[in-house]
Amino acid sequence: MKIIILGAGQVGGSLAAELASEANDITVIDTDAVRLRELGDRLDIRTVVGRGSFPTVLRQAGADDADMLIAVTSSDETNMIACQVAYTLFRTPTKIARIRESAYLTRGGLFHNEAVPIDVLISPEQAVTTYVKRLIETPGALQVLDFAEGKVQLVAVRAFYGGPLVGQELRFLRQHMPGVDTRVAAIFRKDRPILPQGDTVIEADDEVFFIAATPDIRAVMSELRRLEKNHKRVVIAGGGNIGERLAEAIETRYQVKIIEMNKARADYLSQNLDRTVVLHGSASDRELLIEENIEEADIFCAVTNDDEANIMSAMLAKRLGARKVMALINNPAYVDLVQGGEIDIAISPSQATIGTLLAHVRRGDIVNVYSLRRGAAEAIEAVAHGDARSSKVVGKAIRDIDLPPGTTIGAIVRNEQVLIAHDSTVIESDDHVILFVIDKKHIRDVERLFQVGLTFF
């Protein structure tokens, strides 16, 4: 595909890297020549220096025959105007824009071809809020992903010493839990992927991705690790967009405190949040944390816009006794450094956002895409179409499907029914198939499986 990306910041840069590795024709536009040069040196892409909303700049970037425009600059207005120009002058088929300001997002009917022509809206703040909320609701998980409108979840947990399944072969999972159907989709051991077979033995510290119907998730987790008690007390460091949305989303179910540095912002939050306790001060102030009984906090979540402040305050909170700490980290180089040490979970906003975008870049009928392991692996929800003549998957049992190397089918959702995938399961037309792809270079082959041959038409 020929794709133009506006904005070479964290999201734009990560997206360019992700898409360029899949043989797409990528052009990135930004006003910052230095940042573009760094990107251009690292990736096989074209770069154009200029304002992405200017018609001349878009034309220079190849808008005349582009398949898609992705506007992810830090300005909502620039993103909106760029989509308008791309639609009006170049008739660009797909226009995706990052819109952060909730004042735009709450107005129905604003984004369509007769008004502001944006096909897909992405809000990184909303993506991160949803991501963190799921982690809080699933104690002990490293990642929780929803498929088929929440009927199925893919959960990553760290298997730990003394867990019932550690040291056992995977086939024992079914004997252990006869009432629950689940499947291990992948195992990462010391960052190396292992494709699970029946005789694969789970070791302590393995990162295990398993898939199950949402109501069964907690039962499966209890096999891999000691079940953590449900969380009650949550402390959020940073009352910006993400902090405010997160508090709003969870304050009816948990006891929530927000620590906010800016006095005016703290006043605003205290007036606009119903049950959340708002504290004015620094999240890395040791005395403040002790005074607020940080040792009783189940979760400390640092979501300011400063990576270093998030890392330091989360480490401090952990030292002072918080049970689990999470930190929002924009710089990908930091994520691997800190996760799994003092910081339990590092949250990468660009990884949380990229899935939304990838679902629209993938060929075939792809409903959901999640980027996993910092982009190394991917979980995909694809819809099977056609019949036994026109489709490579419909009417076939899973054992007879020619899956690319490192690819597993985890589950199938048929109408309201969740079927955990077994070798004998036959795929029918309109099934939602959830796949796990360990090696990104086989993504194209997975897409081809779900594209319908000409006999279908």
Question: Which features does this protein show?
Answer:
single chain, alpha/beta, Alpha-Beta Plaits, Rossmann fold, six-stranded parallel beta sheet, 25% strand, potassium transport, NAD
Please give a quick description of this structure:
Residues 1-122, 231-347 form the RCK N-terminal domain. With 457 residues, the protein is of the alpha/beta class.
Please give a structural write-up.
This protein folds into four domains: 2-122, Rossmann fold, CATH 3.40.50.720; 128-224, Regulator of K+ conductance, C-terminal domain (Alpha-Beta Plaits), CATH 3.30.70; 233-348, 3-Layer(aba) Sandwich (Rossmann fold); 352-450, Regulator of K+ conductance, C-terminal domain (Alpha-Beta Plaits), CATH 3.30.70. It has 457 residues and is an alpha/beta fold. The longest helix has 15 residues, at 76-90. The strands form four sheets. Strands 3-2-1-4-5-6 form a six-stranded parallel β-sheet, with helices on both faces. Strands 14-13-12-15-16-17 form a six-stranded parallel β-sheet, sandwiched between helices. Strand 18 (366-372) and strand 19 (377-383) form a beta hairpin. The chain contains 15 helices and 22 strands. It has helices at residues 10-20, 33-42, 55-60, 76-90, 102-105, 124-137, 172-176, 217-224, 241-250, 263-272, 286-291, 307-319, 332-338, 349-361, 443-449, and strands at 2-6, 25-30, 46-49, 68-71, 94-98, 120-122, 143-147, 152-158, 182-189, 192-194, 207-213, 233-237, 255-260, 277-280, 299-302, 324-328, 345-347, 366-372, 377-383, 407-414, 417-420, 432-437. One of its GO terms (cellular component) is plasma membrane. Residues 142-226, 367-452 form the RCK C-terminal domain. Keywords: Ion transport, NAD, Potassium, Potassium transport, Repeat, Transport.
